[in-house]
Specification:
Layout lengths: L10 E3 L4 E3 L10 H26 L18
Antiparallel strand pairs: 1-2
């Protein structure tokens, strides 16, 4: 048997530099707020990358059109 594994992903609170780790399905205080803040930051970064991608195209911008709906990660 190895060390205990976190059930939920580890979250780093960027504002405070704190690490939140859930063990045995028990989350520390502030985990949910830090998780929500991290998800919001990831979404903002996705928008920034799309903006940079679309505004830097000089001669041709190719956007894929998938035939199958893309599932968003939760």
């Amino acid at each position: 048997m190895g060390p205990p594994r976190a059930i939920k992903p580890e979250i780093v609170d960027r504002a405070n530099g704190r690490l939140f780790v859930s063990l045995f399905d028990v989350s520390p205080d502030g985990y949910d707020d830090a998780h929500a803040a991290e998800k919001a930051e990831v979404e903002r970064e996705r928008v920034r990358l799309w903006y940079v991608t679309t505004t830097r195209a000089r001669e041709l911008l190719v956007l894929p059109r998938p035939s199958v709906p893309i599932a968003r990660n939760a």
